[in-house]
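Forwarding the complex inputs:
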Amino acid sequence: MKFIHIYRTAFFTLRSRKSRSALTILGIVIGITAIMMVTAAGRGAENLITGELGGLGAETVVIQPGKEPKGPSDFAQALLSDSIKKRELEALSHKQNVPDAVEMSPEIFVSGGVSYQGETYRATVLGFSPQFMMRNLGLTLASGLVFDDSDVVSKAPVAVIGDEVRRELFGDENSIGKYITIKNKRFRVVGVYEKKGQVVFFNVDELVVVPYTTAQTYLTGTDHYSQIVVRASSAEVVERMAFDIKRTLRDLHNINNPTDDDFHVETQQGLVDQVSTIIGAFTLFLTFVVTISLVVGGVGVMNIMLVSVTERTREIGLRKALGATNRDIMLQFLTEAVLLTGVGGLIGVLIGSVLSYVASIAIRSFSGLEWSFIFPFTGALMGIFVSVLVGLIFGLYPAHQASKKSPIEALRYE
Amino acid sequence: MRIIDARSIGKLYDDDGPLTIALEDITLCINEGEFVAIMGPSGSGKSTLLHILGLLDNPTSGEYLFDNISVGKLTPDQIALTRNEKIGFVFQAFNLLPRTDVYHNVLLPLMYSRVPEAEWETRVRTAVDAVGLTERIEHEPSELSGGEKQRVAIARAIVLSPSIIFADEPTGNLDSKSGEHIMDIFKRLNSEGRTVVVITHDEKIGKQARRLVKIKDGRIESDTAIL
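Prediction (whole assembly, two chains):
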C-alpha cells in the first residue's frame, strides 16, 4: 500500500471520530502550549533584562568587596567584606593606574525610611554621586539642582529625591529646600528627579540620593563602600579598564594569586552574560518539567490507541483478509498516532503563541515593563518535533499489537 | 485447472486446555469454474476448513496447494498478496467499514493491490454495477438493508476479479428473499466462469450449488455432484 493511501486512511479514520481524536490529543496540546509559553517567556525575560542592562551603559564597571560570588555563602561573605574603602578609591583615581576611567563614585546602600512631618516612606536610600547616576541612567531633573563635589567633601546633609518620594511625602507642596529625616538626620532636599519608573533592579522614583560621605558618617557609620562604580571613556576599553582596576587593587592588597582576590569587578557585559545564563538554565529546567507532561500526554495517546486497536479488531481482520500485510496495518496505526500528536503539537504551538502574545501585551500594560513578544522559533520546531516523536514512540506498541492480530481471530471477534 | 488441492490436511488446537482436533485427513480438490457448497452442522470444522482454504489460517498437518503453489512455502507477504489478488471473501456479518460509503468499502482491496490508481474508479463502478447498487454508491452501510450490505460485500470480493470466491454463511443474517437474491448473484458469477465456494449449514442453500461436500466431526462425510 502506498504511503499516501495509508495517510488518507488514517486521516479519514481520525476525522470520522472527531471528538475522540480531540480528547486524545488534549494532553499533547496542553504540553506543547506550555512549552511554547515557557520558551516565549524565557526569550521575553532575557530580551527585557539584557536590553535594559545594555541600555545602562556598557562602559561602566562595578567593583564590589569580597571575591566573585559563586554560591550563597560567597554572597554573605561579599556583604560582610569591607575591603573597598577610601584608600582603594584614591588608588583607582590615579590617572596612571586606571587611565581609561573618566568618572567614578563609591556607592553606599542604606536601609531605612524617609520621613517628613510625621509622614514616612520606605525609599531606596543611596550614598552616591547624583550626576553620575543621571548620566548612567539617562535621568533628568524635574526641579532644583544636584549637589556637587564640595558637598561630598563637606559631608553636607543634602538629598536628591525621586518623583514617588516627593509625591508621598510632600503631595502638591513644593519640596525644594524642605528638610526630610533619614535615621534621625535631617537632609535638605535640593533636587527632584524626573519620573522614570523601573530601571532593571530598582525604581528610580523611589530613590533618595545623598553624598556618599554623608551616608557613611551619619547613616551607616562605616568607612567601607558597598561598591565603586567606574565609567570608562568608551565601551571598547571596558575590558582593559577592568584589567587595570584588578591590577591596581591586587598591588594595593599584595595579592599574587587571583583566587585570593578580596574584591571582584563586574562589567555590564559580564552581568548580561550571567543573567542570560540564569534565565537560559531556568527556561531549560521549566521545559524539562513541561516535557514530563508530554510523556503523560503520550501515555494517554497510547491508551486510546490500544482501546482503538481492540475496538477495531474486526476491521484489522477484514483488511488482512483483503490483502493487507502486517506492515500495512502497522503503518496505518502508527500514522494515526503520529497524525494525532503532530496535529496536537501544531495546535499547541498556535495556542501557545497566541497566549504568549496576549500575556506580553498584558505585562506591558500592567507593569510598564518593555516586555516584547518574541516568537520562539526553536521552541515551535522543538514542540512539533517532540510531539511527532511522542506519537512515534507511544504509537509503536499499539500499532505492533494491531499488526500481530491473526485475521481469523480478528474476524471472529464480536 | 486445479485451483484448490488439499492433501490430507489436518488442524489441531492446543492453545488453551485439552487438545482439539478441528480437522482430520481432509483431501479435497476444486477445479476452476466449480460451484461447491461445503455443508455441516456447527462445530463440524467447516469454518476452519474455509479459513485454511482461504489462506487465513495454516493447517497443522498435510499439504495445501493453492493455484498449484504450496502455501507452506509462501512468506506472509506473499500470502497477503495471494489473498488480495486471487481470493474474494464474503462473510456472514458483511464486515463493511462503518461510516464509509459503498464506493470506499469496495475500493478497499484495490488500495492493497498492484492495480494502477487510474483504474480504481472504473473497477469499483463495474463491481458495484454488477451487484446492482450503482444508485447507492454514496450511501453508508447504516443506510443500507441487510441484503444490500451483502451485495456491497460481494462487490468488494469481486473488484479485483479473483479466481475464487469464498462465502462463509453468506445468507445467515438475511431473510429468505434477500438470501435467494444473494444466491442468484453467486450463480450468475459462477456462470460467468468464477469459482465459488459457499459454506452453509442450510440444506436449501447447499442444494443450489453444483457439488456438495458434507463435513462432520472434522472429516469429509460425502462429496457428491448435484445434477
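The first strand of chain B starts at residue 2 and ends at 13.
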